Amino acid sequence: MASIPASGRIHPFRLVVDETACRLCRRCLASGMCRGKAFVRFGSEEPPYIDMARCHGCLACVSECPFGAILRLDSGGSPVRRPEEG
Ligand code: SF4
Ligand code: SF4
């Protein structure tokens, strides 16, 4: 039987932190930034990990990351582009 994510939502995308772009600024880890508290940090010198089971799909983190390090990928692993990005 499939498990139900903690957020109660199953998304058609997944979010990942691009470790080559992340500058470890910790903005995404700030209290209140992520409503699902989906950002997890395993080490102070490692980029955060996004637990999609806790994600509510609001995409606030994508625009809040000042370095564009949070990527939205489709089920095939390709980046999802917004219409204005062409
Ligand atoms: S806000 Fe972006 S650059 Fe800063 S720690 Fe999070 S993913 Fe990395
Ligand atoms: S999309 Fe929203 S709930 Fe999901 S990780 Fe980003 S800020 Fe958190």
Tally of domains: 1
- Write out the strand line-up for the largest beta sheet, numbering strands in chain order: 1-4
The proportion of residues in beta strands is 5-15%
Bound small molecules, by name, code or SMILES, are: iron/sulfur cluster
Task: Quote the CATH topology.
Answer: Alpha-Beta Plaits
Number of strands: 4
What is the succession of H and E elements?
Answer: EEEHE
- State the distance separating the first and last CA atoms: 39 Å
Question: What is the average per-residue confidence, as pLDDT, rounded to a whole number?
Answer: 88
Biggest sheet layout: 2 strands, antiparallel
As a percent range, the share of helical residues equals under 10%
State the name of the first-level CATH class. Answer: Alpha Beta
Regions with pLDDT < 50 over 5+ consecutive residues?
none
CATH architecture descriptor name: 2-Layer Sandwich
Shape label: globular
Question: Which structural category fits the helices and strands?
Answer: mainly beta
Number of helices: 1
Whole-number radius of gyration? 13 Å
